[in-house]
Amino acid sequence: MxxxxxxxxxxxxxxxxxxxxxxSVKSAKSAVEKGYRDTLNLPKTSFSxxxxxxxxxxxxxxxxxxxNIYGKIRQARQGAPSYxxxxxxxxxxxxxxxGHVINKVLKDFVVKYKTMTGxxxxxxxxxxxxxxxxxxxxxxxxGENIRQMRKLDIRKDCMKYASKYVxxxxxxxxxxxxxxxxxxxxxxxxxxxxxxxxxVFAELVDxxxxxxxxxxxxxxxxxxxxxxxxxLEYKDVSSPSIFVNFPVDKExxxxxxxxxxxxxxxxxxxxxxxxxxxxxxxxxxxxxxIAVHPYLDYTTxxxxxxxxxxxxxxxxxxxxxxxxxxxxxxxQYSIGEKAVxxxxxxxxxxxxxxxxxxxxxxxxxxxxxxxxVTTEDGTGLVHTAPGHGVEDYVSGQMCNLxxxxxxxxxxxxxxxxxxxxxxxxxxxxxxxxxxxxxxxGFLFAESTITHSYxxxxxxxxxxxxxxxEQWFISVDKELPPTASLRKQGVGGKSLRDLALESINxxxxxxxxGQKRIAGMLESRPDWCISRQxxxxxxxxxxxxxxxxxxxxxxxxLAVAKHIAEKGSDSWFTDxxxxxxxxxxxxxxxxxxxxxxxxxxxxxxxxESGCSWHSAAVKAGWxxxxxxxxxxxxxxxxxxxxxxxxxLGAIGKAPFKGVLTHGxxxxxxGMKQSKSLGNYVNALDEVAKxxxxxxxxxxxxxxxxxxxRCNDELIGRTQDAxxxxxxxxxxxxxxxxxxxxNADSVAYNDMFEVDxxxxxxxxxxxxxxxxxxxxxxxxxxxxxxYNFCTVQMSSIYMDVLxxxxxxxxxDSLSRRSAQTAMCKILDCLIRMLAPIxxxxxxxxxxxxxxxxxxxxxxxxxxxxxxxxxxTQYEESIHWAEMTKxxxxxxxxxxxxxxxxxxxxxxxxxxxxxxxRKEKKxxxxxxxxxxxxxxxxxxxxxxxxxxxxxFAALCIVxxxxxxxxxxxxxxxAEKSSYNKCQRCWNYWPSVGTDSEHPDLCKRCxxxxxx
Length: 1008
Ligand SMILES: [Zn+2]
Prior knowledge:
Layout: H1 3-22, H2 25-33, H3 53-67, H4 69-76, E1 85-86, H5 98-116, E2 126-127, H6 132-142, H7 151-174, E3 186-187, H8 191-206, E4 210-220, E5 225-226, E6 232-247, H9 250-259, H10 264-267, E7 271-278, E8 289-292, E9 297-305, E10 308-315, H11 319-325, E11 333-335, E12 340-341, E13 366-369, E14 381-384, H12 390-398, H13 430-439, E15 443-456, E16 464-473, H14 483-488, H15 495-502, E17 507-509, H16 512-523, E18 527-528, E19 530-531, E20 542-544, E21 549-550, H17 553-566, H18 570-573, H19 576-580, E22 595-597, E23 601-602, H20 604-609, H21 611-616, E24 625-631, H22 638-650, E25 655-661, E26 664-665, H23 682-689, H24 691-700, E27 707-708, H25 711-733, H26 740-743, H27 752-773, H28 777-806, H29 812-832, H30 837-851, H31 853-861, H32 865-868, H33 894-916, E28 926-932, H34 935-944, H35 946-953, E29 957-962, E30 968-973, H36 1000-1007
The structure holds zinc ion.
């Protein structure tokens, strides 16, 4: 059976079902037997009731691909104003998941909507192809073999791996009905893209924002590399919390006696100590100083522990907490009478509890001052290890301490620590350190605390601070105050200043995004851009044997040129002379034969952070682009890390707007993961329901919040889909014989209820347009859904059936209804097209082939030069979006309709009672009496016409009488006979001798 035949059969079945519900099978039969059914205008359409999405969609995508739909759309919009949504590159690793679905489908809504509103809105998908996740996967696969492999071979395998997943994901994205230049995506490992990164980098180098330094950075022991802020995951962990006594140096005790903190009598038989607190005992081996606050008060406690007498110095405000931690009861201790300011302690010296000799070439083991010392926790004296903490490092720089880090890349101590610590992994050594301190009388108290601690996103292990030589982009260094940079408004300002300034001019959706990124920008450290890995773009520095670094704008651009031609592998194979080019003028003191190439590669975030240049600018787009659209974790990641390079290179933000969405959680609001068993497999969902269901689901959720997601919730969207589909089907089925040019009725000549429908449509168009413009897609969904279920399905479509099926096919009444329906259908398809890409296309084609109104509309549509000549009836996706029709005034009759519909509701309530009591089988049987006390309402009903009002309520007759005090409605079974063709109970039934079983209207229709 063909689709068409099947449809016809179904339509007949629908109709017969209705008959069965309303009437006995017998009378239905008699209508059919008498041949009246053939005189009805029953709906006809190729748009079937059953969506069959999982079969229909792939077929449609094949057709789209054959006609090169993306190319056609771009062609149709050539020369139109542009709207650029720049795709954030997902990582080319694994199948797509629900997060991808939400992100890409939201982007597709925007691109398709903007295209339909007349913009040239290209979409170039991108992939992040370098980096650790791919490298670790490849290393896992290679196993032991990796030891024998050269860097280039590992890189080759990584490229294979990334390319494979680009292909897989590309296919999966297209299966969601996403249009874009999937033939020419931007890939971060392409030579042209890599060259673009270096072009941006050259600008930052030129402005003096790039530096190399030994500095503590987040270090992943598991992955043996530096980590960026965006690569950290914070987890609550339990850590040791220890209070440690550092003995005061002999000479400094004299000073303490002078200050009055320690009594001379105590000094001989007592251990005088500075007490510190730490949660990372392993860092004590790298301790070089103790910091105190210059203006805090410091005093002493005297106590006995393990039959030794101690005097410990600590902040007065921390006394109580420290005594509690040490579990010292009253009478077991005494508090010093004297307190001094921290600055009085500056320069006093101590003896390290277990490092015999200062391992550095600079001074160490003294009290230094630091304003960041607080009395929130600890003792008010802060253990300082400049190689293992950010504040420690800053203090170390100020006080001329060495940035000492005795920890190797694999997390083990090097040989500069005491024998008993050597080769211990620092993540396992805390207990050993604590035991040593306890055994040797340095440990005052030990407990554990739970706190939030950074972990590596890949290895999942805790991250340590470790000083290594790394490349950084400074966020606080000012750009040179040259005349040209000042003119740009960037000279003399730091990247942080510029970033905080520029975000004020960006549209953040939702608005809180601005505050979020501002907070992150305010507190962010310099950007560590170097990684000690293989799979990425090398940092283009050369080092001479005298340890001089060659990295200038010119040298970086020369490397960029070389890499653009030969790819980044050439960095590892070619000589500095080949890379820079024979003509390159080396600065004084350098010569080609004495240059080593830098081994480090770029942080992948720097690579994707340059996509505004490497992808957007290179595609000919102007920057800033219109929109970045990603998950809300990208305030820390891609948004911020695109903003900084762009400000440094071109002095402006790369985007005008930034839209963020939340993440999927399960029905209880819990994070979803495969291990928790609440994971939703995106590919399974697509295979089960079809893409349009997933897309409708994405449209239905408020993406600004956490998105609840499970199979049942997605499956439930099918109900909404069916209601929308059935509305389209009804409209299509009843306009099959309507030619918009020849048959349409002017608005003023239309039936009142048809005008009402168009007024409702205008309201819908206004609201939907506003929602689309503000990217509030769940509002688009609920507006359209409510329109289909309420205005259309429960009111208008029911009211129309009699007119559509039973009036003469070319009667004014039917043409009036069809005019309204055609407009509604056309608008609905267009408004749905960005969301239900396949279904809208299917409906558009069904409409084109049936009602001929497409030509009329297309003509009206061709408002833009660029699309005037396009044959775009082939696809809805290069048609134009519905526009508001200002000629339709819905405001002036709103009040009237409100009152009429209220009265209708009351009538329906009364009829429902009657049906329940089985006094009538259908509303058509009923005669309604309205006793109206409201004169205005009575006037409205009379003006509207009793017959029309009866049609609005789908009853056989309405009688109106005035009432004195209260409006009431009653109903009873009509006393008239029933028309066997239209089943109305009308007085005219039986008046015609030739057709005694028909009403007057039906007699006329049958006779014609
Ligand atoms: Zn009739």
